């Protein structure tokens, strides 16, 4: 029991957000008369929040290093506009246009990263300037008009679903099989991690609690895939999100670059004395953020089937809120990719649930602001308690 309590205390923020997410889902499921967790609405939740979750992953890395990026919404809009010019006006094949769009995002990130990392201008000022600059460029490129439509191939990235097995099925069988495969993969990875911890004589969770954790997560995975299989199956964008989560989780946990990012955010001077090239790390974190903003802009444009001058408005606020609610620290050095995704889902479920029960946008904005404030206050409370 003491081991379990220590494990919970060590991850209180992440576990707290998971519990909060479950509570919020159950609350809105009740208030919306069961609409929230219907297969169609769950699918819409994924599609509606995919670009915010992509931005949240990139924003997390920026916040861990102790910086902020206010320009991501404008960059997403600008890249979406550029992709529309290439694909719609100049009939460029969408794979080439997407690759060029991601390069544009990387160039934007390099531009801002240079000023932050090497000129030492605060990231708040640099990205605030970027927010205004790229919003203006978006309006200039589009000449104040929307550009549409995109090809079906490009739109399928954001609105398409993986194909099913041939034959007549009442459920999407590929999605059900994917749930089983994910469950087996999760069990294998967890058991392997436990064996490694045992080999090095780390403190382990008691077997009953460990088995309860495995069973609970496997049930959630298979229930989730069953709900999706009841509609059209796994959306293409969910596959992309899972791939991004897997890659960035590996980078942050297992690579030198990930350790350097955490070290930079924890204490920049100490990191520099330890041999971390702090300027280089900061620069590449902003390049990465530019690429993620570009990807989010492509996903949003594909879902909307148009590039508009007003695209990306307030995206940066939702991404920042997702990172902070998911456990990132305002002072840097703390945060996980999974936590940012959970924070994004909290925001997404709240937006969707409040819309389902008919709350006005004024109430929605106020409630979201309070949730963000309480999340940061909770983080500071835990820090003060620990110290």
From TrEMBL:
It is a multi-pass membrane protein. It is found in: Cell membrane. The keyword Cell inner membrane applies. The chain crosses the membrane at residues 12-30, 42-63, 70-88, 94-117, 124-142, 169-189, 210-228, 234-251, 281-300, 320-346. The keyword Amino-acid biosynthesis does not apply. InterPro entries: ABC_transp_permease. Keywords: Cell inner membrane, Cell membrane, Membrane, Sugar transport, Transmembrane, Transmembrane helix, Transport. PANTHER family: ABC TRANSPORTER PERMEASE PROTEIN YPHD-RELATED-RELATED (PTHR32196), XYLOSE TRANSPORT SYSTEM PERMEASE PROTEIN XYLH (PTHR32196:SF32). Part of the binding-protein-dependent transport system for D-xylose. Probably responsible for the translocation of the substrate across the membrane. This is Xylose transport system permease protein XylH. It comes from Paenibacillus aurantiacus. The gene is mmsB.
């Amino acid at each position: 029991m003491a081991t379990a309590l220590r494990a919970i205390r060590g991850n209180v923020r992440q576990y707290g957000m998971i519990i909060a997410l479950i509570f919020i889902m159950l609350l809105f499921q009740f208030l919306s008369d069961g609409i929230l967790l219907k297969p169609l609405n769950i699918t819409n939740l994924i599609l509606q929040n995919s670009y915010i979750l992509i931005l949240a992953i990139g924003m997390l890395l920026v916040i861990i290093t102790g910086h902020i990026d206010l320009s991501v919404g404008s960059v997403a809009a600008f890249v979406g506009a550029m992709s529309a010019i290439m694909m719609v006006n100049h009939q460029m094949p969408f794979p080439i246009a997407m690759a060029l769009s991601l390069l544009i995002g990387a160039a934007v990130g390099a531009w801002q990263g240079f000023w932050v990392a090497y000129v030492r201008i605060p990231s708040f000022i640099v990205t605030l300037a970027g927010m205004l600059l790229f919003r203006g460029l978006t309006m200039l490129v589009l000449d104040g008009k929307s550009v549409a439509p995109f090809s079906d191939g490009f739109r399928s990235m954001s609105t398409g679903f993986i194909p099913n097995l041939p034959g007549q099925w009442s459920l999407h069988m590929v999605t059900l099989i994917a749930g089983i495969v994910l469950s087996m993969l999760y069990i294998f990875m967890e058991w392997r991690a436990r064996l490694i911890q045992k080999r090095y004589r780390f403190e382990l969770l008691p077997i009953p609690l460990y088995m309860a954790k495995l069973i609970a997560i496997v049930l959630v995975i298979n229930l989730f895939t069953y709900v999706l299989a009841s509609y059209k199956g796994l959306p293409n964008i969910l596959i992309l999100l899972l791939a991004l989560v897997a890659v960035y989780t590996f980078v942050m946990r297992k690579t030198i670059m990930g350790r350097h990012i955490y070290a930079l955010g924890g204490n920049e001077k100490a990191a520099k004395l330890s041999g971390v090239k702090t300027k280089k790390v900061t620069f590449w974190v902003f390049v990465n953020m530019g690429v993620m903003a570009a990807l989010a802009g492509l996903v949003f444009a594909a879902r909307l089937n148009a590039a508009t001058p007003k695209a990306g408005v307030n995206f940066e606020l939702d991404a920042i809120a997702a990172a902070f609610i998911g456990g990132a620290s305002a002072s840097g050095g703390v945060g996980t990719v999974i936590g940012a995704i959970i924070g994004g889902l909290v925001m997404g479920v709240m937006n969707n649930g409040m819309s389902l029960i008919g709350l006005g946008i004024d109430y929605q904005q106020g409630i979201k602001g309070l949730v963000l404030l309480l999340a940061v206050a909770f983080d500071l409370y835990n820090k003060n308690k620990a110290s």
